[in-house]
Amino acid sequence: MHLSATSIPSGPLCCFRSDAENFHGSRRILEVIPVIATKRAPSLQLAISKSKGGIGVITMRDRSKNRKPLQRGRNLSIEAIQTVQALKRAKKDTNSLEREIQSKVRRLLKWDLIAVLRELQRQNEPLLALKVFEEVQKESWYKPQMLLYADMISVLASNGMLDIVERLFLYLKMESSLDADTEGFNALLKTLMEFGTTGLVMDCFHLMKAVRCEPDKSTFRILIDGLELKGEATLSAIARKEAEKHFGGLEFLEENQDLTLSSN
Protein backbone atom coordinates (compact mmCIF):
# COMPACT_ATOMS: atom_id res chain seq x y z
CA MET A 1 0.00 0.00 0.00
CA HIS A 2 1.41 3.37 -0.99
CA LEU A 3 0.78 6.07 1.62
CA SER A 4 1.09 9.53 0.09
CA ALA A 5 1.71 12.70 2.06
CA THR A 6 -1.86 13.84 1.40
CA SER A 7 -3.31 10.69 3.00
CA ILE A 8 -1.64 11.38 6.36
CA PRO A 9 -4.07 13.16 8.68
CA SER A 10 -3.05 16.65 9.73
CA GLY A 11 -3.33 18.00 13.25
CA PRO A 12 -2.34 15.61 16.06
CA LEU A 13 0.83 13.63 15.65
CA CYS A 14 0.30 10.08 14.50
CA CYS A 15 2.23 6.85 14.56
CA PHE A 16 1.67 4.01 12.11
CA ARG A 17 1.42 0.34 13.05
CA SER A 18 1.83 -2.34 10.40
CA ASP A 19 0.38 -5.76 11.19
CA ALA A 20 2.38 -8.52 9.47
CA GLU A 21 -0.53 -10.96 9.83
CA ASN A 22 -3.11 -8.74 8.12
CA PHE A 23 -2.29 -9.26 4.46
CA HIS A 24 -4.90 -9.43 1.74
CA GLY A 25 -2.97 -10.48 -1.33
CA SER A 26 -0.16 -7.97 -1.62
CA ARG A 27 -1.85 -5.32 0.48
CA ARG A 28 -0.69 -4.43 3.99
CA ILE A 29 -3.06 -2.77 6.40
CA LEU A 30 -1.78 0.33 8.21
CA GLU A 31 -3.51 1.52 11.32
CA VAL A 32 -3.23 5.19 12.18
CA ILE A 33 -2.95 5.76 15.91
CA PRO A 34 -3.51 9.34 17.09
CA VAL A 35 -1.10 10.80 19.61
CA ILE A 36 -1.78 13.92 21.64
CA ALA A 37 0.06 16.85 20.10
CA THR A 38 2.31 19.14 22.08
CA LYS A 39 1.88 22.91 22.16
CA ARG A 40 4.96 23.53 20.05
CA ALA A 41 5.88 21.72 16.86
CA PRO A 42 9.01 19.79 17.82
CA SER A 43 11.89 18.54 15.74
CA LEU A 44 10.98 14.90 15.15
CA GLN A 45 12.91 11.72 14.60
CA LEU A 46 11.42 8.40 13.49
CA ALA A 47 12.21 5.26 15.46
CA ILE A 48 11.11 1.74 14.42
CA SER A 49 10.70 -1.13 16.87
CA LYS A 50 9.31 -4.65 16.51
CA SER A 51 7.42 -6.86 18.93
CA LYS A 52 7.47 -10.65 19.10
CA GLY A 53 4.31 -10.84 17.01
CA GLY A 54 6.04 -9.14 14.09
CA ILE A 55 4.29 -5.84 14.61
CA GLY A 56 6.44 -2.90 13.58
CA VAL A 57 5.78 0.37 15.35
CA ILE A 58 6.95 3.69 13.98
CA THR A 59 7.11 6.35 16.65
CA MET A 60 8.21 9.95 16.58
CA ARG A 61 10.24 11.52 19.35
CA ASP A 62 11.31 15.09 20.00
CA ARG A 63 15.02 15.52 19.18
CA SER A 64 15.06 18.91 20.87
CA LYS A 65 15.00 17.12 24.22
CA ASN A 66 18.55 15.98 23.51
CA ARG A 67 19.81 19.55 23.21
CA LYS A 68 21.85 20.51 26.25
CA PRO A 69 20.63 23.66 28.01
CA LEU A 70 22.93 26.59 27.62
CA GLN A 71 22.36 27.98 31.10
CA ARG A 72 20.72 26.51 34.17
CA GLY A 73 17.03 26.31 33.33
CA ARG A 74 17.36 28.17 30.04
CA ASN A 75 17.40 26.81 26.48
CA LEU A 76 18.64 28.61 23.41
CA SER A 77 16.04 30.80 21.75
CA ILE A 78 15.38 30.56 18.02
CA GLU A 79 17.25 33.84 17.50
CA ALA A 80 20.26 32.54 19.43
CA ILE A 81 20.32 29.26 17.50
CA GLN A 82 20.11 31.06 14.16
CA THR A 83 22.91 33.42 15.21
CA VAL A 84 25.22 30.57 16.23
CA GLN A 85 24.58 28.78 12.94
CA ALA A 86 25.12 31.95 10.89
CA LEU A 87 28.41 32.73 12.64
CA LYS A 88 29.72 29.21 12.09
CA ARG A 89 28.84 29.37 8.38
CA ALA A 90 30.58 32.72 7.98
CA LYS A 91 33.67 32.14 10.13
CA LYS A 92 36.03 31.48 7.19
CA ASP A 93 35.26 34.79 5.49
CA THR A 94 36.03 38.01 7.37
CA ASN A 95 33.52 40.16 5.46
CA SER A 96 30.71 37.64 5.82
CA LEU A 97 31.45 37.27 9.52
CA GLU A 98 31.31 41.02 10.06
CA ARG A 99 27.96 41.19 8.25
CA GLU A 100 26.52 38.48 10.49
CA ILE A 101 27.77 40.27 13.58
CA GLN A 102 26.14 43.51 12.47
CA SER A 103 22.87 41.97 11.30
CA LYS A 104 22.39 39.34 14.01
CA VAL A 105 24.69 39.58 17.01
CA ARG A 106 24.19 43.30 17.63
CA ARG A 107 20.42 42.91 17.51
CA LEU A 108 20.25 40.30 20.27
CA LEU A 109 18.86 40.99 23.70
CA LYS A 110 21.13 40.62 26.71
CA TRP A 111 20.34 37.02 27.64
CA ASP A 112 20.38 35.84 24.04
CA LEU A 113 23.77 37.46 23.52
CA ILE A 114 25.17 35.75 26.61
CA ALA A 115 23.55 32.50 25.47
CA VAL A 116 25.28 32.71 22.07
CA LEU A 117 28.61 33.31 23.81
CA ARG A 118 28.13 30.28 26.08
CA GLU A 119 27.04 28.07 23.21
CA LEU A 120 30.05 28.96 21.06
CA GLN A 121 32.29 28.21 24.03
CA ARG A 122 30.52 24.89 24.55
CA GLN A 123 30.97 24.01 20.88
CA ASN A 124 34.69 24.84 21.16
CA GLU A 125 34.63 27.79 18.76
CA PRO A 126 37.21 29.99 20.54
CA LEU A 127 37.65 32.75 17.94
CA LEU A 128 33.92 33.11 17.31
CA ALA A 129 33.32 33.16 21.06
CA LEU A 130 35.96 35.86 21.42
CA LYS A 131 34.21 37.96 18.76
CA VAL A 132 30.93 37.70 20.65
CA PHE A 133 32.72 38.38 23.95
CA GLU A 134 34.00 41.65 22.47
CA GLU A 135 30.42 42.54 21.46
CA VAL A 136 29.24 41.82 25.01
CA GLN A 137 31.83 44.28 26.32
CA LYS A 138 30.41 47.03 24.08
CA GLU A 139 26.90 46.77 25.52
CA SER A 140 25.62 49.50 27.85
CA TRP A 141 24.58 46.91 30.45
CA TYR A 142 28.02 45.26 30.51
CA LYS A 143 29.81 44.94 33.83
CA PRO A 144 33.13 43.08 34.04
CA GLN A 145 32.61 39.64 35.54
CA MET A 146 35.38 37.26 36.52
CA LEU A 147 33.44 34.15 35.50
CA LEU A 148 32.93 35.53 31.98
CA TYR A 149 36.67 36.08 31.68
CA ALA A 150 37.48 32.71 33.27
CA ASP A 151 35.28 30.81 30.81
CA MET A 152 36.64 32.72 27.81
CA ILE A 153 40.25 32.20 28.87
CA SER A 154 39.58 28.50 29.50
CA VAL A 155 38.34 27.97 25.92
CA LEU A 156 41.28 29.87 24.45
CA ALA A 157 43.86 28.09 26.61
CA SER A 158 42.44 24.65 25.86
CA ASN A 159 43.01 25.41 22.16
CA GLY A 160 46.61 26.46 22.72
CA MET A 161 45.96 30.17 22.13
CA LEU A 162 48.12 31.32 25.03
CA ASP A 163 49.19 34.54 23.31
CA ILE A 164 45.53 35.61 23.13
CA VAL A 165 45.10 34.49 26.75
CA GLU A 166 47.87 36.89 27.79
CA ARG A 167 46.29 39.78 25.87
CA LEU A 168 42.88 39.06 27.32
CA PHE A 169 44.34 38.96 30.82
CA LEU A 170 45.84 42.42 30.21
CA TYR A 171 42.36 43.68 29.29
CA LEU A 172 41.07 42.13 32.50
CA LYS A 173 43.64 44.06 34.54
CA MET A 174 42.53 47.30 32.86
CA GLU A 175 38.84 46.77 33.63
CA SER A 176 37.37 49.34 35.97
CA SER A 177 34.98 48.38 38.77
CA LEU A 178 36.00 44.73 38.70
CA ASP A 179 33.89 42.73 41.14
CA ALA A 180 35.58 41.07 44.11
CA ASP A 181 34.33 37.65 43.04
CA THR A 182 36.27 34.92 44.85
CA GLU A 183 34.59 32.12 42.89
CA GLY A 184 35.45 33.77 39.58
CA PHE A 185 39.06 34.37 40.60
CA ASN A 186 39.39 30.76 41.75
CA ALA A 187 38.04 29.52 38.41
CA LEU A 188 40.57 31.66 36.54
CA LEU A 189 43.43 30.60 38.82
CA LYS A 190 42.56 26.96 38.24
CA THR A 191 42.49 27.42 34.46
CA LEU A 192 45.79 29.29 34.37
CA MET A 193 47.39 26.70 36.62
CA GLU A 194 46.09 23.84 34.49
CA PHE A 195 47.71 25.21 31.35
CA GLY A 196 51.06 25.90 32.97
CA THR A 197 51.09 29.69 32.90
CA THR A 198 52.48 30.17 36.42
CA GLY A 199 53.47 33.77 35.70
CA LEU A 200 49.85 34.63 34.94
CA VAL A 201 48.77 32.63 37.98
CA MET A 202 50.71 34.90 40.29
CA ASP A 203 49.57 38.00 38.36
CA CYS A 204 45.99 36.83 38.86
CA PHE A 205 46.58 36.37 42.58
CA HIS A 206 48.08 39.87 42.84
CA LEU A 207 45.09 41.27 40.92
CA MET A 208 42.81 39.47 43.35
CA LYS A 209 44.45 41.29 46.25
CA ALA A 210 44.49 44.61 44.34
CA VAL A 211 40.69 44.61 43.97
CA ARG A 212 40.36 43.58 47.63
CA CYS A 213 38.90 40.20 46.82
CA GLU A 214 39.28 37.96 49.85
CA PRO A 215 40.95 34.63 48.99
CA ASP A 216 39.44 31.54 50.59
CA LYS A 217 40.82 28.10 51.38
CA SER A 218 40.16 26.92 47.82
CA THR A 219 42.27 29.80 46.52
CA PHE A 220 45.30 28.68 48.49
CA ARG A 221 44.77 25.00 47.73
CA ILE A 222 44.85 25.82 44.01
CA LEU A 223 47.98 27.92 44.45
CA ILE A 224 49.98 25.73 46.83
CA ASP A 225 49.13 22.33 45.33
CA GLY A 226 49.46 23.56 41.75
CA LEU A 227 52.76 25.36 42.24
CA GLU A 228 54.29 22.41 44.07
CA LEU A 229 53.24 20.02 41.31
CA LYS A 230 54.97 22.28 38.78
CA GLY A 231 58.15 22.40 40.84
CA GLU A 232 57.73 26.08 41.71
CA ALA A 233 59.01 25.75 45.29
CA THR A 234 59.74 29.46 45.77
CA LEU A 235 56.30 30.58 44.58
CA SER A 236 54.66 27.84 46.63
CA ALA A 237 56.47 29.08 49.74
CA ILE A 238 55.13 32.60 49.09
CA ALA A 239 51.60 31.21 48.80
CA ARG A 240 52.04 29.25 52.04
CA LYS A 241 53.07 32.40 53.90
CA GLU A 242 50.02 34.23 52.56
CA ALA A 243 47.79 31.37 53.68
CA GLU A 244 49.27 31.42 57.17
CA LYS A 245 48.52 35.15 57.43
CA HIS A 246 44.88 34.57 56.48
CA PHE A 247 44.13 31.41 58.45
CA GLY A 248 46.79 31.31 61.15
CA GLY A 249 48.17 28.02 59.87
CA LEU A 250 48.05 25.43 57.10
CA GLU A 251 45.89 22.82 58.81
CA PHE A 252 43.21 23.27 56.13
CA LEU A 253 45.58 21.68 53.59
CA GLU A 254 45.71 18.52 55.70
CA GLU A 255 41.92 18.62 56.05
CA ASN A 256 41.65 18.58 52.26
CA GLN A 257 43.97 15.57 52.05
CA ASP A 258 41.93 13.73 54.69
CA LEU A 259 38.74 14.36 52.69
CA THR A 260 40.40 13.05 49.53
CA LEU A 261 41.58 9.87 51.26
CA SER A 262 38.17 9.23 52.83
CA SER A 263 36.43 9.64 49.46
CA ASN A 264 38.75 7.00 47.96
Overall residue-averaged pLDDT value: 78
Given as residue ranges, the uncertain stretches (5+ residues, pLDDT < 50) are 1-52, 63-73, 258-264
- What sequence of helices (H) and strands (E) makes up the elements? EEEEHHHHHHHHHHH
Number of domains: 3
Going across the biggest sheet, name each strand in turn.
2-1-4-3
Helicity, in percent? 40-55%
Structural features, described:
The longest helix is centred in the last third of the chain and has 15 residues, at 233-247. The protein has helices at residues 78-90, 94-103, 110-122, 126-138, 146-158, 162-174, 182-194, 198-210, 217-229, 233-247, 251-263; strands at residues 14-24, 27-34, 44-50, 56-62. The radius of gyration is 27 Å and the shape is elongated. Helix 3 packs antiparallel against helix 4. Residues 1-52, 63-73 and 258-264 have low confidence and may be disordered. It starts with 13 loop residues before the first strand and ends with a helix. The protein contains 11 helices and 4 strands. It is of the alpha+beta class and 264 residues long. The protein has 3 domains: 5-66, no CATH class; 68-142, Tetratricopeptide repeat domain (Serine Threonine Protein Phosphatase 5, Tetratricopeptide repeat, Alpha Horseshoe), CATH 1.25.40.10; 165-264, no CATH class. Strands 2-1-4-3 form a 4-stranded antiparallel sheet, with no helix packed on it.
